[in-house]
Amino acid sequence: MSVPSPGSLSSRLELSASAFRANVAAFRSTAGATRRVGAVLKGNAYGHGFSEMLPLAHAAADALYVITPGEGLAVRAFEAQQSAARRDVLVIGATSAAEVVELAEAGVDCVVADGSYDAAVPLLRARGLEASVHLHLDTGLGREGFTRQQLEAGAADGLAAARDVLNVKGVLSHFANTEDVTEQSYASTQLDAFARSFELLQQRIGLPATTQRHFAASAAALVLPPSRFDVVRVGISLYGLWPSTETRLSAKVVLGELPALHPVLTWRCPSQVVKWLPAGSYVGYGCTWRCGSDTRVAVLPVGYWDGYPRLASGKAHVLVNGKRCPVLGRVMMNHLIVDVTHAVTNEAPLVATLLGRDGDESISAETLAGWAQTIHYELVTRLGAHVPRRVVE
Ligand SMILES: *Cc1c(COP(=O)(O)O)cnc(C)c1O
Asked: For residue 218, which atom of ligand 1 is closest to its CA?
């Protein structure tokens, strides 16, 4: 059974289709016309909503990257239902041998990152299927992928004999340290390692020199031109968010001018009640806030269950009528209480903006994440999948 749907007074996410398309266009112009732009849809499309973002990403991007086999199959189901042309889809996450077979059947590519591909070979042969795979090379992240030492020890050599069922379509790697710095010396060592391992694969398994290569996520695609190769795998920035302040600074230096990235997501919540609390009233669990004067508060039916971080208690504000309204006391599971004394003139129902623009003010995902001592990647991916989402132009 899925989670029962929230009521009509719940918070909701608005997703801007035009912002998304503009972000894809920004990457097309930055990466150059000959390079393909791929969209990363993992983490419920960075919390924006997989099913809402898929039609937009499918229409605008050249390739789709997902983390689970289920997401890959969902793309094929979407295409079948829409009679849409097939996009290249790559499952970059872990897959079992049985899942490799299932993906091969659906024409979804998957990653070979270690010796476990062995187990899929007889299953594919038995079914007469060929899987398109991308070899993941660990060039310095220490996560999935063949290390240089593993390649030298022959960990990928079996691919040569499995050519009938495993078609090596691409080779990829992932950076460890592009968004945390403004100089890319560590990334350069990863690029070198990538080139050397690619050569080694040419020698050991006869990998053609023309095999597709891809390495860059958002930050590298923006600030490290040699990393762009054949296709860039852009996640966070297609949703209109800069990977980091360092990336933004570097982009200004590397590109001369900053590409405009437009946040796709706006998060709003209608009030449950607006009322006056007399001076001296306590607000919220733990009585951590006490009203110094008569205070008009709005109770918003949204809380940490929906993804509003509890660590932002005592720091955050929301926007009402373009004005900042502090969150009073603790963020609760299903409620926020905000001070709207000066933002409204009566106790009529109102709508608060938790993320996004309202008039001249805006609250970015970076800002809310900062209040909660985390990063915007985590903040957005934790937005509750149950929160209603709507695509707007
Ligand atoms: C998450 C991820 C990306 C996208 O990263 P962003 O920083 O969000 O652009 C690309 N490639 C791999 C392998 C990833 O795991």
From this structure: 9
